[in-house]
Design brief:
The complex is a heterodimer. Chain A is of the alpha+beta class. Chain A has a single domain (about 10-120), classed as 2-Layer Sandwich (Alpha-D-Glucose-1,6-Bisphosphate, Chain A, domain 4). Chain A is built from three helices and seven strands, in the order βααββββββα. In chain A, strands 1-7-6-5-4-3-2 form a seven-stranded antiparallel sheet. In chain A, helix 1 (about 20-30) crosses helix 2 (about 30-35). The termini of chain A are far apart. Chain B folds into two domains: about 1-80, Arc Repressor Mutant, subunit A (Orthogonal Bundle); about 85-120. Chain B is mainly α. The two termini of chain B are about 40 Å apart. In chain B, helix 1 runs antiparallel to helix 4 (about 50-65). The longest helix of chain B is centred in the last third of the chain and has 34 residues, at about 85-120. The chains are: A alpha+beta, B mainly alpha. The interface of A and B includes residues 4, 6, 13, 36 and 130 of A.
């Protein structure tokens, strides 16, 4: 597991579902199945494309109750059927930022615990700029305080 | 059963955030910045605190990444950091709802599908 970036925020959501990991992995990765359940109540998935290979891209269209359409896009980083998927996540609403989703399917008897780990990772360049900015500020502050 | 164990860097980050919030002067500074950016001298004023003293508080808040600083010539402006608690809280709230709803939808989908197959 890669170390967590100090500027990232992580959300973990779990649900136990009466189905095998294989069944759930298929539901999550096959576009024709994904479209049938994706999204919370009120949000419909109107299109989905999945190129299931490391580096492959996916696109999921989300139609909200008010009619707006939002595309979620990303690329696969890890594909380990039927237990793990890791992919990047972008809604295009936060320029420069990227997020990462890890989905795990762990069998527990005749059910599966589905865990979604959603990390919000700041763009590395943006983070470096931030750090340089702060270091500059502190140096400036030191000079300011030293000057009396 | 332990809940999700966080990586060490994340734990340190949380230590800094809670450490920063454990002081009422720093909480007041954050409350002031929630209304908009301010100069360091403006932040010091309500407490009648020396600039080195307020700087110590600001350093703690900066290390916790709760505030950001802009230098404009000799004037130092502070503002809530883009990754401030409010922003983080909003993101968490939004996506928690999104994923919980999606997983319930997934459960309905695979469980109803199974029922159909059994007929």
């Amino acid at each position: 597991m890669t170390p967590n970036d100090a500027q990232s925020v992580t959300l973990v959501v779990r649900e136990t579902i009466r189905a095998t990991p294989e069944r759930l992995f298929a539901a999550w990765t096959r576009p024709e199945q994904l479209m049938q359940w994706w999204g919370p109540e009120g949000v419909t998935c109107t299109a989905a494309e999945v190129d299931l290979k490391v580096g492959g891209a996916y696109r999921i269209a989300n139609r909200f109750p008010d009619g707006t359409l939002l595309w979620i896009t990303g690329n696969f980083e890890v594909i380990e059927p039927p237990h793990r998927l890791v992919y990047t996540w972008s809604t295009g609403m936060e320029p420069g930022a990227s997020e990462r989703v890890t989905v795990r399917f762990a069998a527990h008897g005749d059910a599966t615990e589905v865990s979604v780990i959603h990390e919000r990772i700041r763009d590395a360049a943006l983070r470096d700029m931030h750090e340089k900015g702060w270091l500059g500020c502190l140096a400036g502050l030191r000079r300011y305080l030293a000057s009396g | 059963m332990p809940s999700s164990a966080l990586p060490r860097t994340r734990e340190r980050e949380l230590d800094r955030v809670f450490g920063a919030l454990s002081d009422r002067t720093r909480r007041a500074i954050l409350a002031r910045l929630a209304e908009g950016p301010a100069r360091v001298s403006e932040l010091a004023e309500p407490f009648r605190m020396s600039l080195p003293a307020v700087s110590r508080h600001l350093k703690v808040l900066e290390r916790a990444r709760l505030i950001a600083r802009d230098v404009d010539g000799r004037v130092h402006h502070c503002s809530l950091a883009p990754d401030s608690l409010r922003d983080v809280d909003r993101w968490l709230h939004h996506y928690r709802g999104f994923w919980e709803g999606s997983l319930k939808s997934l459960a309905r989908y695979v469980e109803q599908d199974k029922t159909r197959k059994l007929r």
